[in-house]
Design a protein that fits this description.
single chain; mainly alpha; two-stranded antiparallel ribbon; 25 helices; 8 strands; globular
């Protein structure tokens, strides 16, 4: 029977929505211009048309989505029946199709539905898990194995066969290039921890460390920035192995080797900068290298364009603000958006800048980010979002290999970036502000700087605003990035997002703030850039945060 125009139109609407399996409340949504942004926008007439479609007359993916959407908009027994049919449709044919990312997202959604509804729906979910488990232990496809592995780890499945999964992933790693092999060995290590085989997991992590060191050695002379970035990541990974476990794996001097490599790479970079132009140094390679492994070159190019604008020029903003400040004849009282008095001109210096000049700098900075958000970030994000549906796992793949993201914070930052990419910049900024503070603290501590205060024998963590006053900050992050963090997250008279969010000072009106959008964009840019700490103090870092703790 031929589909009606209304049926074809509504099936087309369903096909436009992006599936977000990690969002139980709102799993289908699109940012495209359409009256139907999500299932909630379907009218009763729309639902009646969809109910009249025979699921057997559409292809497998359309059938799954149709049944899922009808379940979302149904109640009682009708909801349970639709969910059971949807989960069964996912289970049918898993052993015969090639598993791509979208197929895994459907499995992810179905497993979560089965977990919540149990009963007949739960039994269908067990079918999916059994087929995926068999597939995982038999596949020779790296992408497929990682997708299923991550899915099972996320849902805490296949614990009984964790050792077998780890062994299979290690075997696959032997036939892959360094980047893919590291991803497989990282997954194998995670399964080793699940199996409570810490020795095997540490072996995998040690292999990853040595792989980064070897990669850096190959490219150090020609691409020293890439080498330093790889070594910084190697050091982050190394610190997940207890010091007592390093010697037996040939890593007793690994931290010293990595630090020496970073110093050598930085020296080579300075030598190259005296003989070649900035254009000849491939600064875009982190985005292209990392994102091509996730979604292909097209998404890599889109993200590269989104993150292309540079950091705010500190010296230029300061010079312009100094000139404007000299034209002021009267002192100024600074008022926050909630009517609090936050300062008076001429009363203090802020980050070694007179407060009247700093206030002008904040005005210039706010105008800059407002123009950048409206003119570049939002339009580019909207265009990219319409073509590429990125999930938390995509961002997690990026944060896991980022040298600037502290160990153990990869998923938290990835989750926040995914919130922003979905359009929830308010939530993204709230989650990212404390992560920026931790990022600054960790790299300062790794440089040997003091990041704690002591009172009556009790240790207290120093807040971000005080951390950013440390003399090591500029040499660690550079003048422009240090200014960005100060201006956006902790400096007085500016957005001061860390303080505003921490103390509940942001009202609902802040949801649409350009500063929230910019904070999300800036952290993404940080995560994606080259980073290497040029001032590692290995003894101080190990004393502060013992490896493996």
């Amino acid at each position: 029977m031929k589909a009606t125009e209304d049926e074809m139109m509504l099936m087309g609407v369903l096909g436009v929505w992006d599936l977000r399996p990690d969002d139980w409340q709102d799993p289908y949504r699109t940012e495209r211009k359409t009256p139907w942004k999500s299932p909630a926008d379907l009218t009763d007439d729309d639902l009646n048309v969809l109910r009249g479609i025979d699921p057997n007359l559409v292809d497998r993916q359309q059938r799954i989505r149709l049944l899922d959407v009808l379940a979302i908009r149904s109640t009682g027994r009708e909801k349970a029946d639709a969910f059971r049919a949807m989960v069964a449709a996912v289970a049918d044919g898993i052993d015969t199709i090639g598993l791509e990312r979208y197929d895994i997202d459907q499995c992810d959604r179905a497993i979560e539905v089965a977990r919540r509804f149990k009963g007949e729906v739960g039994e269908q979910g067990k079918r999916i898990e059994a087929q995926l488990h068999a597939r995982l232990l038999a596949t020779t496809d790296t992408s497929e194995s990682i997708l299923i592995s991550d899915l099972f780890l996320r849902h805490d499945r296949a614990r009984a066969s964790a050792s077998d999964v780890a062994s299979h992933l290690r075997q696959l790693a032997h036939a892959e290039d360094a980047g893919a092999a590291r991803t497989l060995r990282e997954a194998a290590a995670n399964w080793g921890y699940v199996a409570q085989d810490r020795a095997a997991a540490f072996d995998d992590v040690a292999w990853i460390v040595e792989s980064y060191i070897a990669e850096a050695e190959v490219v150090r002379e020609s691409r020293p920035m890439l080498a330093a970035d790889a070594l910084e990541t190697a050091l982050k990974v190394l610190r997940t192995i207890p010091q007592t476990e390093r010697a037996s794996r040939g890593l007793s001097d690994a931290a010293e080797r990595v630090k020496a490599g970073i110093d050598a790479a930085n020296a080579q970079r300075h030598r190259l900068l005296t003989t070649v132009s900035e254009e000849e140094v491939d600064l875009s390679s982190p985005a292209k290298r990392r994102w091509s492994a996730i979604r292909g070159r097209s998404i890599g190019e889109a993200i590269d364009f989104l993150l292309r604008p540079g950091f705010a020029d500190y010296k230029q903003i300061q010079a312009a603000s100094s000139e404007a400040s000299r034209r002021r004849w009267f002192s100024t009282v600074y008022i926050a958006s909630d009517a609090r008095t936050t300062g008076r001109s001429g009363s203090r210096d802020i980050y070694e800048v007179p407060d009247d000049i700093w206030a002008e700098m904040m005005d210039v900075y706010d105008r800059r980010i407002g123009l950048l958000v409206a003119g570049h970030i939002v339009p580019t994000w909207q265009a990219t979002r319409a073509d590429h549906a990125l999930q938390v796992d995509d961002f997690h793949a990026l944060t896991r290999v980022s040298s600037i993201v502290p160990a153990g914070r990869e998923y938290s930052i990835a989750r926040a970036l995914a919130y922003g990419y979905s359009g929830d910049f308010f939530t993204a900024a709230q989650l990212l502000a404390p992560q920026v503070e931790n990022l600054v603290r960790v790299h300062l501590a790794n440089s040997g700087a003091s990041t704690r205060s002591y009172e009556d024998g009790i240790q207290h963590e120093v807040a971000l605003s005080s951390l950013m006053e440390r003399k090591e900050i500029v040499s660690l992050f550079g003048e422009d990035l240090a200014f960005e963090i100060r201006a956006l997250f902790c400096g007085p008279l500016g957005p001061n997002l860390r303080n505003e969010y921490a103390h509940g000072l942001v009202s609902d009106a802040g949801r649409a703030s350009h500063t929230s959008v910019y904070a999300w964009w800036l952290v993404w840019k940080l995560v994606d850039m080259y980073f290497a700490n040029a001032h590692h103090d290995l003894e101080a870092a190990d004393a502060r945060q013992p490896a493996g703790s």
